[in-house]
Amino acid sequence: MKASLLSFGTFTLAALACALTGRADEGQYKIVNTAQLMGSGRIDYVYADNDGGKLYVPRGAQVLVFDLETLKPAGTIPNTKGVHGVAVDPVSGHAFSSSKPVVMWDSKTLETIKTIDVEGNPDGILFEPLTEKIYVLSHSAPNVTVIDGKDGSISGTIDLGGAPEQAQSDAAGHVYIDLEDKDKIAVVDAKAMKLTGSFDLAGKGGGPGGLGLDNKNHVLFAFCHNPAVAVILSAQDGRILDTLPIGKGTDGGGFNPATMEAFSSQGDATLTIIKENSPTNFVVEQNVQTKPRAKTCTLDTKRNQIVLIALEPAAAPAGGAANAGATVTPAAATSGSSTNAAGERPRGGGRNNGPAMLDILVVGK
């Protein structure tokens, strides 16, 4: 009888522990969906077209298109040489690649409309909603090429005096762009297309690779490499509000106004979530385990989920082709940046153009 009671008590305690653990996990971010696709070519920025329900993954000399909800393949944009990222103008329905030349296509049919010759070396890219312009960023001059989202004409260029990585717009006339080599946030007048000033990170963080913006409270989150911190500052005057630790190897980030959370993806297989409790109070809420080199991300605003991408180098099997039967995406890889084993991005980057598995990771609750 005692043994039976003991067994029953042990079982009850174990069941209770599992139930409590399950409840605790309900409020935590975790990987909720994944997809894999074999192919070749470099990757860089991933982009969610929330209005069109598509996910864009530039790879090599093409852009892979997926259904944002199901992650099923939905098409391909070819001939995007050296492509790094994608931006979509939801008003005109036109999409653009940060490549050379820039390719413009119909975001519904995926049919190419035109190509646009640009200078510099296109890298990051942003749709600016107030002016309906596309900002193509380049580490070399011109630092920004501004393209009209309606007809694809070049509206002008902007000199930032530094190497831009990621940009955010407040949709009220200001565009903020982190300058990785200057440890500053450039401030651009969207209507005048001119640099009006910059915010110095004041030694709190170096090499900003990602940027988030809380429009409502005018708060910027600069995600930095060295040290690996988020420098949080006022978007109105550049005053530094706080610094918080993040993982190593950031190359992308953002802010979700629906949850009041900033997020930064890192190559060391972490996704850092920062909760904004108030415009002056911030805390690291969670470091989600992702995959090595999953260093860029995008926000699915409909489901409040964060999508990340990474490459897993393919191991060549003995006496046969790698991953026989897998879908192979042929592409000449000429773009992207890499991270080392620690998740840090070497200056000058690297090339890994051989066969590799593309991982798409969806993080949510």
How would you describe what is shown here?
The protein is mainly β and 365 residues long. The chain has one domain: Methylamine Dehydrogenase, Chain H. Helices cover 7% and strands 50% of the residues. It has one helix and 28 strands. It has one helix at residues 2-26; strands spanning 30-40, 47-49, 54-59, 62-67, 73-77, 86-89, 94-97, 102-106, 112-116, 122-128, 133-138, 144-148, 154-158, 164-169, 174-179, 184-189, 194-200, 208-214, 219-224, 229-234, 240-245, 250-256, 261-266, 268-278, 281-292, 296-300, 305-313, 355-364. The strands form seven sheets. The protein has a four-stranded antiparallel sheet with strand order 1-28-27-26, with no helix packed on it. Strand 18 and strand 19 form a beta hairpin. It is globular. The termini are far apart. Residues 1-11, 319-339 and 345-351 have low confidence and may be disordered.
Sheet with most strands = 4 strands, antiparallel
- Reported by name, the CATH topology is Methylamine Dehydrogenase, Chain H
Shape: globular
Question: Strands across the major sheet, in which order?
Answer: 1-28-27-26
The helix-strand sequence is: HEEEEEEEEEEEEEEEEEEEEEEEEEEEE
CATH architecture: 7 Propeller
Binned, the helix content reads under 10%
Give the CATH superfamily: YVTN repeat-like/Quinoprotein amine dehydrogenase
Distance between the termini: 44 Å
